[in-house]
Automatic annotation (TrEMBL):
PANTHER family: ACETYL-COA HYDROLASE (PTHR21432:SF20), ACETYL-COA HYDROLASE-RELATED (PTHR21432). It comes from the Bacteria. Pfam families: AcetylCoA_hyd_C. This is Acetyl-CoA hydrolase/transferase C-terminal domain-containing protein. The keyword Hydrolase applies. GO terms for molecular function: hydrolase activity. Keywords: Hydrolase. Residues 252-388 form the Acetyl-CoA hydrolase/transferase C-terminal domain. The lineage of its organism: Bacteria, Bacillati, Actinomycetota, Actinomycetes, Pseudonocardiales.
Amino acid sequence: MTIDAAALAQLVRPGARVAIADGCGAPRAAYAALSELARTRGDLRLVLGWMPAPLEGLDLAAFADARTVMPGWGLRTAVADGLVRSVPARLSATPSLLAGPLRPDLLVVAAAPGPYGLQLGSEVSWVRAVIDAGVPIAAVVDAALPRAAAGPVLPEGQTYEIGHDDAGPAEIPVPDEPSAEHREIGRSVAALLPNDARLQWAPGQLGQAVVRAVLDRGRPVHADSGLLGDPVVDLDEAGLLASTPVATYLVGTRRLYDWADAQGRAGRPVLHGVEHTHDPNRLAAEPPLVAVNTAVEIDLDGQVNVEGSARAIVGGIGGHPDYSAAATRSRRGLSVIALASTHRGRPTLVDRLSRPVTTASHDVDVVVTEHGVAHLRGLDRAERRVALRTLWE
C-alpha cells in the first residue's frame, strides 16, 4: 500500500467537503492520510455512505463535520457517539443530496485497472452521480478489486491517482446457517413468487433463507437488488439466473468478488448507479418485482422501522422504501416484509414504533413470519390490523 499524501493535500482546498466512496470497496488505504490532513487543516468536512466494514485508520473526530447518508454497520458506534451525523434519506435521493446541500469538493475512491482505464469495482452506488457532476476524483488504484461496474471508466481529465493498494474489497462473512424460523419464512416467500419474477432480497440470514428456498423451488428468477451477496453465485451455479443481475453494491466473500470479475477482461457488468437500480419506474416495470425486505419492528398499521430500536441504531433507510414502493406498483409484483415474530424474546409487532417510519404502511402488500402470511392488499385499515394481530397470535 502506497499513498502520496502530498498529492492528496494538493487536491483538498481549505474548508473542503470530502466524500469517501462507500461499500466494501471503500478506499481504506487513504484513510490515514486523509485523517492526518484533517487534523492538520482543522476545517475539513466529510461525507460518507454505507460502510459495512470497520473504518480502521479513519479518525472521524479530526473532521470539523462528518455526515452519512446511510449508516451501515461500520458507522453504528460513530453515529451513536455523535462523531457522525446521520442524514435521513432513501438511497434514491442521495444523488440529489450530493448535488445540492452535501455536494463534495473532492471524491476519494478505490478503482480497478481495466482494459480501457480505471473503473469502479465492487460498488457504484451514488458515486457515479458525483463523478457525472464533475467533482474531482482522488483514486487509489487497487488491482484486487473486481471489475463489476457497468458504465464508463473514470474520466481521465477529472481523475488523479494518489496511490496504490492490493487489498481488494472487505470480505463480509456469509451469515450463519439460517434458523428454522428463517427457513420457514423463506419457504413462504418463495411460494409467493410469480413466474419470471424479479427478486430483491435483504442481506443476512433471512435473505439467505429466501434464496435457499428459491433454489429448492427450482424456477429461475431475475436478481434485481440493491445489494448482491454470495447467494447470487449459488443461483448462477444452479442455472437459476434468468438474466444478468442488477445491483449497486457487492457485499460478501472472495467467492462473490471472483464471480463478479470472471467474465473476460472487463469483468461482469452487474453494478449500476442508484439512479438506475433504484429508479421507481424501472423497478415497477415488467418482469414483476417481488421486493423482500425485513424490519426491526412493524406496527399494527403495517408501518415499518428498519433504523433501530429505542436504544440503538441498527441501520439506515437505504433502499427499503424505494423497492417497497416500486413493488406495490408492479403488476403481479409484491412488497413483502419478512421477519421473525420475536427478537430476543420481544414481539416484533408493536403498538408504536421505536423510531420514525422507514416505509409507509401503504407500501406493504404482504407480511411473512414463521407462523404464516398476512395478505394486506385490498384491506382497509381495520382489516389490516386484524390480519397482523392474527399473524402474531
